[in-house]
Amino acid sequence: MKSLWKDDEAQRCDDDLAMRVYTSRLLGASEELVMHGGGNTSVKSTREDFFGEQHDVLYVKGSGWDLKTIEKEGFAPLLLNQTKRLAELESLTDDDMVAQLKLFCMDPSAPGPSVEAILHAILPFKFVDHTHTDAVVTLTNNPKGEKIMQELYPDCLILPYIMPGFILSKQVFDAIQGIDLNERKGIILLHHGVFTFDDDAKQSYETMIELVTRAEDYITRKGSTVHPKEESEIDLLELAEIRNVISKARGTAQLAQLNDSKKACGFASRDDVKTIATRGPITPDHVIRTKRTPVILKKNIEKNVSSYVDDYKTYFDTHTDGKLTMLDPAPRWGVWKHRGTLAFGSSVKECQIIHDITRHTLWAIQTGETLGGWQALPEKDIFDVEYWVLEQNKLKKAGQAKKHQGKIAIVTGAASGIGKATALALHAQGAVVVGLDIDTSIEKQFNQPDLKGIAVDITEMKKVKSAIERVVREFGGLDILVCNAGMFSTGQTIDKMDQDVWGKTLEVNLTATQLVMKYSIEYLKLGIDPTILIVGSRNVSAPGPGASAYSVSKAGLTQLARVAALELASDGVRVNVIHPDAVFDTGLWTKEALEKSAGRYNMSVDEYKKKNLLKREISSKQIGELLSTVASQTFINTTGAQISVDGGNDRVI
Q: What's the angle, vertex CA 339, arms to CA 32 and CA 462, rounded to 5?
């Protein structure tokens, strides 16, 4: 491991906290040291209170902040002497510890301090760094882990695993009594991580690099980091089935994101994968994200997941004190035999965190096996972290999930107007959304991990099929399909109709939608509360002269939706139609076109926009929000419906 320290960057740090931010980010820059909120750092300094009096303070990393991107605001300023005194107590509950640390914080807007704040306070050095480095923890997850640590780190204090929080702080407090820590380079916590410290920020950071490098060198000498690699073909319907079963086990829609890299496939293809993958996480902290073990998926998916759920319930019943609330028993990651690994989560961010942790887990497990065996902590120790009172408290504070959280949606014609508004409305309610449009700007408009655009002409069969398969492959399935893409042509009476215009209008508005439905239905049948939404038109009920191609295509589309509702009801797929009218904030309506149309009725543009019974203007956003609502549980018992959104039209009524 190499030091990332740069003197010119360090010299720009104008105070203690700026230096603390700088070296914290150096640690956070390496996933081999910390990942996704893991690890913590601190600096001891002074701070002026409201009355102008100076106090010794401990700036310690706040809960929820990531070392990779932390700012000054990410550190909680605790009164140092009061925080240190907590370690002198014989006992302290976690709730009382959290309450006292809040009382000692000089900034009420600061984040909650790390649960290891007391430990940082009692170490008599200005800078303290703590990481969960892969290399060291891999070596401690070994039958001879303590012996290896003694051999590698004769200049460090080595302590057995103990629960984080006050108990750990008390262990360290007792261990350092009568010890000159200036003669120690750090503290090694078995199955947990490494602490380094110094009055100089650079020295504390580079000592961490040195200690981790020793572990890496040992692994290179004694073991192997070369692991199996394989390739595989993915059955997308089986992937959608896995996601369906996992979602039902968790009780809410989940994404199922696949890692089918050669390394992941190699791990999933090992003959001993069921044995080595289910011994436990690298470090207990990971259990909050990944649970203790993955589910092993092969052949009978439903049985695999059902067995996992039963085993989890047994695990809970074995270790609970009778006062705990069991978490949902669904797995957070899986090993898909010969296919790779899967991350299950309610959002892309959650899945990405799980993927990152499991990537490191695969490395650690396989590397550990070459060093004499992979041996995680006993179940009870893992359980205690998973059901830590501080984690249980988070459950009580959790808010209500968004109505489409974990859902996967495709919206056609999403580059503008109703399609764009619908995509944004679904995304705002927690869905992963992929917008399809012939307009290539869709890929720039929607370029977030959970809001993506694919430029595709939906009249081209192969490209439609490919786009839908891409969505399923990336996110695990499909729940919501909004068929909005269409074209509008007017001004040609039937006897003057250009046949190319007629054919193109029916192709885009009707046949292309049938294609999208055709290739989506097999995945929707495996979706969570699946639904198809068709954007029709007021012209279905109240056509006008000169718009025969448009009116006929939308009428045909409505009939297609009615048939689909009949065909798919037995599979639980709802199909409903929204008929909007006079939605003027779309690309079809230019200022000139609006003025021309309003002029035909001797109206102002504002009057023309409200030319309905309710005298209200209708926006794309309103249509999008309605479509999002119809896709939700609110309309769970509605299928085959046609809903007008036109402000009231006397001809329709």
A: 115
Full-model pTM:
0.93
**What is the spatial distance between Cα 74 and Cα 62, in angstroms, rounded to a whole number?**
5
Beta-ladder partners of 520: none
**Which of 550, 551, 530 lies closest to 542, judged by CA?**
551
Candidates 3.30.200.20, 3.40.225.10, 2.60.40.10, 3.40.50.920; correct CATH number of 236-397? 3.40.225.10
In Å, how far from its chain's centre is CA 574?
Answer: 27
Place of tokens 């959280």: 405
Per the CB < 8 A criterion, the answer to whether 254 and 354 are in contact is no
Distance CA 648, CA 615 (A): 9
The C-alpha atoms of residue 262 and residue 274 are separated, in whole angstroms, by 18
Question: What is the topology classification, in CATH, of domain 408-583+618-645?
Answer: Rossmann fold (3.40.50)
- Return d(Cα 538, Cα 529) in angstroms, integer: 28
Asked if 508 and 550 touch (Cβ cutoff 8 Å), the reply is no
User: CB of 489 within 8 A of CB of 500?
Assistant: no
- Among 225, 191, 194, 224, CA closest to 210: 194
Q: Is the CB of residue 303 less than 8 Å from the CB of residue 316?
A: no
Q: How far apart, in whole angstroms, are the C-alpha atoms of residue 296 and residue 232?
A: 17
Rounded mean pLDDT for each run of 10 residues along the chain, 653 residues in total: 96 96 97 90 96 97 94 98 96 94 96 95 98 96 96 97 94 94 96 97 98 97 94 95 98 97 97 95 92 96 98 97 93 97 97 96 96 94 92 72 96 96 98 98 97 97 97 98 90 89 94 97 98 96 90 96 98 98 84 87 92 94 97 97 95 92
Q: Count CA atoms closer than 13 A to 490's CA, side-chain side.
A: 10
CA–CA distance, 114 with 322 (Å, rounded to integer): 28
Residue with tokens 């192969």: 462
CA 630/CA 533 separation, integer angstroms:
8
Determine the length of the chain.
653
The answer to whether the CB of 558 falls within 8 A of the CB of 536 is yes
Phi then psi for 93, rounded to 5 degrees?
-70, 160
**Which CATH code, of 3.30.420.40, 3.40.225.10, 2.60.40.10, 3.90.79.10, is assigned to 7-222?**
3.40.225.10
Cβ 290 vs Cβ 358: under 8 Å: yes
Quick one: tokens of 193? 């991580």
DSSP 319-334: H--SSPPPPP---SEE
